[in-house]
């Protein structure tokens, strides 16, 4: 099977090339920034809130939870 870009998809080639060039030029800074933000698992509780488009916080009990059938990339208990 062979894949190819559509003419519209081909218009993204310069954009992707620019992002690639930026990433290659800044890889060390990106790695350093990521490393400075990392912390071990279990390093403390995190609180997150879902906010609707109008800026209203959505209560946790109003958010539906959908169980994934995809395999987890994490070991059991993590």
UniProtKB/TrEMBL annotation:
Cite the InterPro entries for this sequence.
HTH_HxlR, WH-like_DNA-bd_sf
Q: Which residues form the HTH hxlR-type domain?
A: 1-29
| Domain of life, source organism | Bacteria
Q: What is this protein's record name?
A: Transcriptional regulator, HxlR family
């Amino acid at each position: 099977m062979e894949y190819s870009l559509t003419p519209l998809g081909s218009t993204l080639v310069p954009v992707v090339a620019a992002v690639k060039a930026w990433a290659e030029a800044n890889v060390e800074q990106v790695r350093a920034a990521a490393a400075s933000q990392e912390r071990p698992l279990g390093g403390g509780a995190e609180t997150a809130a879902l906010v609707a488009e109008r800026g209203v916080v959505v209560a946790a009990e109003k958010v539906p939870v959908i169980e994934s059938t995809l395999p987890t990339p994490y070991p059991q208990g993590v």
